[in-house]
Amino acid sequence: MPVHSTDIEEIFKEVADLLELQDANPFRVRAYRNAARTIASLPYSIIDLVENDKDLTELPGIGEDLADKIREICKTGTLKFLKKLENEEGGSLHELMGIPGLGPKKVKALHQTLGIETLQELDEAAQQGKIGTVEGFGEKSEANILKELKRLKERSGRTPYPVALQLAEPLIKYLKQQQGLKQIKIAGSFRRCRETVGDLDILASCKRGTDLITHFVHYDEVDDIISKGKTRSTVILKSGLQVDLRVIPAVSWGAGLFYFTGSKAHNIAVRKLALKRGLKINEYGVFKNDKRIAGKSEEEMYAQVGLPYIVPELRENRGEIKAVAEGKLPALITLDDIRGDLHMHTKKSDGHHTISQMAQAALERGYEYIAITEHSQHVRVARGLDAKALEKHMEEIDTINNQIDGIEILKGVEVDILEDGSLDLPDTILKELDIVICAVHYLFDLPEEEQTRRIIRALENPFVNILAHPTGRLIGERDPYPIDMKEVMKTAKGNNCFLELNSYPYRLDLNDTYCKMAKEMGLKIAINSDAHSTDGLHNLSFGIQQARRGWLEADDVINTQDHDNLKRLLNKN
C-alpha cells in the first residue's frame, strides 16, 4: 500500500500516545510528537526524500532511530514498534486520547474502572451515566465527553485540506501520464480552498478516443470502484477519500469547471441572474433557448450574466455577486504581498532551528523582517522562557541583527494568557520587546463569558500587539473554545491590537468568516506561519488561501507593510 507523509505523521502520533499511556520517558514521547510535527510542516513529501536516499537526519528532530523507522514505514506501510505497543497492555487506548480532556491518567482510570477500550464503549458508558461514577470524573465530565464524541462523528466525514492535497498531487501526476489528456483540474471545495474537503471532484478534457477512465480506476491507491462509465467514475482510495472523475468535452470545459467548483449557493445565485436574461446555465454551458452560447471558459460563463470572473475562493454566496456587480469586489491578498512573518519559534523554546537559520530562510523568501516569538515560561512542554532567559535571548537577537544584512529580526514573545487574563511575564520585560503576541494554551473549556473576559483583559495590556490563534481550534481534533468574537474584536481594535490568522494548516485560525468580520470592522490581521522550523515558513501559503476566502486585501494585513510602517503599527504609544 502506498504511503504518504500523513501516514507517517499519524503513526508517530499514535506511538507517542501509547508511550505516554505507559508512562514512558517524557523526552521519548516528545521526540515522536516533535517528529510528527516536523513531517506535518514539510512543504514537500518526506516519501520523496526516502525514495531519493536523502539524509533524513538533516530534518529537525529526526535522529538515526526515527529515520530508520520512517524508512521502515515507507518500505512496509507499517511500523513493528507500533505493533508491539498495540499488543501490550493498554495498546488499544490511544484513540480515547483524541477526545479533548482525556489525557493518559484519565484514560487509564476509565480503562481500569469500567474496562473501556474503544470510542464506542466510551460512548455507551457515557450514555448510561457510568462515567460520572469514576474517580476524577463527574456529571460535567460525562456531558463534555458526550459532546466531544458527537463532534467527532460530525467531523469524521471530511478531510483536512493539507491531507487532501497530499493525496491529490500524486493522483493528478498519475492521470497526466495518460496520452490524449488535454486539461485536468480539481474542482469542488478543494478548488475553493476550504479548510476541509468532503471528496475530490476531478474534471478532465481529452482527445477523442482517450480512455482516461480505465487509467483512473487502475491507480494503485484505488481500494474500491463504486462506478465506472465511459465519461465518469467514482472510486474510494485506500485512505478512505472518495474521488469522482468526469471527462467533459472541451466546448463545455468552463461550464463544467464553474458547475462542479460550486458552491451550490453561488451557482444558484448565478443561475437566477441567467434566468432574468432568458438564459439557462448547467454543466454543459449557457443556453439561449436550445443554443449553447457560452461554455468553453468560466470567464465567458460569467460574462453572459453581466459579471466579471469571480475567483473560486469567494464563491460562497456571501455577498460576492452584489460586490462584483457594484465594482466593489476586493483585490485579494497574494503571497507576494507579504513582507515578513511575525510568529515563529527557534531552538530557544520548541523550535528546531537557530535564530540565524530562521532569518536566513526568511531572507531567501524575500522577507524584510521577521519576529522571533518564543513561548513564555508557562508552556513548560515547549521549554518556555522566563523573564531572565528572555532578556538573554533578546541580547542574542541584537547581536545577530548586527551580523546579518537585508532583514530585521524583531524581538518578540508568545506569552501565555493566564486564567484571570493576566500575562505569564511581567510588563517590565514586555515593554522592552518589539512585538508581544498573547495566546491561550490551556483551560479551553471555560464558559464563554469567562473565556471572553480572560482574553479581553489580556488585550487591554498596554504592551500586547497580537492575539495568536484566537479561537484555539485544531481542525479535526479540537473545536474552538467558546468566546464572544465580536467583543474580542472590538477590544482589539480599541486597544490598537491585531488578531492573528495562524497559517499552521491544522489551525487556520481565524476562520474565513471571522476574517471577513474583522475586515468589515476595520480590524487588521497578521498572517503568520507559527513556524517551528525553516520548512514551517511555507505554512504561510495556507494562511493566504484562508485570508482570500475571508475577503482580505493587502491593506487589511499588517505584515504587508514595510518595516517602518509596521513599527508604527506595533508602537501602541
Task: Write up this protein.
By secondary structure, this protein is α/β, with parallel strands linked by helices. The protein folds into four domains: 5-155, DNA polymerase beta, N-terminal domain-like (DNA polymerase, domain 1, Orthogonal Bundle), CATH 1.10.150.110; 159-247, Beta Polymerase, domain 2, CATH 3.30.460; 252-325, DNA polymerase, thumb domain (Beta Polymerase, domain 3); 335-570, TIM Barrel, CATH 3.20.20.140. 41% of the residues lie in helices and 14% in strands. The protein contains 23 helices and 17 strands. The chain has helices at residues 5-21, 26-41, 46-51, 64-76, 80-87, 104-114, 119-127, 139-155, 161-175, 188-191, 212-217, 253-261, 264-276, 298-303, 320-325, 355-364, 387-401, 427-430, 448-459, 485-494, 512-521, 540-549, 563-570; strands spanning 159-160, 181-186, 196-197, 200-206, 222-228, 232-237, 242-247, 279-282, 285-288, 291-294, 340-341, 369-375, 408-416, 435-439, 466-467, 498-502, 525-528. The protein has a seven-stranded parallel β-sheet with strand order 11-12-13-14-15-16-17. It has a five-stranded mixed β-sheet with strand order 2-4-7-6-5, with helices on both faces. Helix 19 (448-459) links the parallel strand 14 (435-439) and strand 15. Helix 1 packs parallel to helix 5, helix 19 runs parallel beside helix 20 (485-494) and helix 20 crosses helix 21. The longest helix has 17 residues, at 5-21. The termini are far apart. The mean pLDDT is 92.
